[in-house]
Amino acid sequence: MSSAASLPPFRIPVWRRAVLKVGSNLLAAEGGGLDDRHAGPLAAFVQHSVDQGREVVLVSSGAVAAGRAVLRQHALKATGGGLAARQALAAMGQVPVLEMWRRLSARPVAQVLLSHDDIRHRRRYLNARATLRELLALDVLAVVNENDTVAVDELKLGDNDNLAAIVASLIEADVLLIASDIDALYTGDPRIDAAATPIRQVSQVTPEIMAMAGGSGSVVGTGGMRTKLKAAVTAAGRGIPTALFDGRSAATVAALGHGELHGTWFHATAEQRLHARKHWLRHLPAVAGGIRIDEGARHALSDRRASLLPGGIVQVDGEFRRGDMVAVYTADGLLLGQGLCQYGAAEVRCLAGQHSRDIERVLGYSHGTEVIHRDDLVVLDRLLAGAW
């Protein structure tokens, strides 16, 4: 069996924003608890990326393993198995996980717990994304995990590979980085197949590629290669490529910081990202009513792909709530496009014609400087021209 280290490194395209997923197998200590020997180089990679002007959001496993250690440390007896027990362990382990990353990070650290409802409901989706964007703007390391303590089986986001792909889509990441305890995708399970060889690039995850995957390699993990392939499929569907690499190798992690991947690269195209986002925004039904804008705002939206700011709004028709899909019209009633609104109709009426810096003064609070962010807006004339 050859290893990914024997392959020529893949040169990663330049990226600005990434999601880094770190699995339980990299953080769990022998006998339980957490071990930061692999987390240290990964934290250094994050800081190196930030120093280069990039942004990284961390999706970290390890809470359940850390929770088991808390049980032993305080001589507490587990009440049993099942979902409730796992949720209790996750609740106890979240603090040690966060504390580990805080200790290893040169920047402030914040915990973000996401649930199924945060992703499925538009207003909560906007809130989650706004929080993550604000943390990035503040140069804070966001450590994301699923809110296991309140999730039920039928409403779980699933394993953290899937969660990382969802977060990558949520923040419009350029790449998904999966740090694993295996160095690449192989033609077979390298633990049992001596002839298995690493695959440097995957243009598309086909049924044949999926058949190469095995199950979870450890009792502390919830996924395996199959969950990583599914995450790569999810990310690719939003135009986000995925890098799979050995998070146990400090040399591999250091090389990643210089744009060299010793692992497997799952391709995705800009066209995929454009199509997925455009299709979703274009076909999400708008509520009744809408926002009318002046000529300056029309040019900004159509020609510069700018966000809709309150200063360009001249009229608000009908009623809508924060997070609703709202139609945008020119002042004379021509439909220009539609987008997810950061404010409700009553709020937008108060903000119409105001400067963005006055939002908090007018409302007493702020959800951001944009009424509709450019990433949440599809402009119909640009859509018909094949761009947005």
Automatic annotation (TrEMBL):
**Source domain of life:** Bacteria
Q: Where in the cell is it found?
A: Cytoplasm
Molecular function terms in GO for this entry?
ATP binding; glutamate 5-kinase activity; RNA binding
Q: State where it is primarily located.
A: cytoplasm
EC id? 2.7.2.11
Known Gene3D superfamilies for this protein?
Answer: Acetylglutamate kinase-like, PUA domain
Q: What class of enzyme is it?
A: transferase
- What range(s) does the PUA domain occupy? 289-372
Which intervals of the chain form a coiled coil?
none
Q: What's an example GO cellular component term for this entry?
A: cytosol
Pathways involved: Amino-acid biosynthesis; L-proline biosynthesis; L-glutamate 5-semialdehyde from L-glutamate: step 1/2
The residues listed in the UniProt record as binding ATP, with positions renumbered to this chain, are: 21, 180-181, 222-228
UniProt cross-references to InterPro entries, sorted A to Z: AceGlu_kinase-like_sf, Asp/Glu/Uridylate_kinase, G5K_ProB, Glu/AcGlu_kinase, Glu_5kinase, Glu_5kinase/COase_Synthase, Glutamate_5-kinase_CS, PUA
**GO biological process terms, semicolon-separated:** L-proline biosynthetic process
Binding of substrate, residues: 61, 148, 160
Keyword Kinase assigned to the entry: answer is yes
Q: List the Pfam families hit by this protein, alphabetically.
A: AA_kinase (PF00696), PUA (PF01472)
Where do transmembrane segments lie in this chain? none
Family stated for the protein in its record: Belongs to the glutamate 5-kinase family.
Task performed by this protein:
Catalyzes the transfer of a phosphate group to glutamate to form L-glutamate 5-phosphate.
Q: Which PANTHER family match?
A: GLUTAMATE 5-KINASE, ISOPENTENYL PHOSPHATE KINASE
What is the name of the protein in this document?
A: Glutamate 5-kinase
Species assigned in the record: Frateuria aurantia (strain ATCC 33424 / DSM 6220 / KCTC 2777 / LMG 1558 / NBRC 3245 / NCIMB 13370) (Acetobacter aurantius)
Gene name of this polypeptide: proB
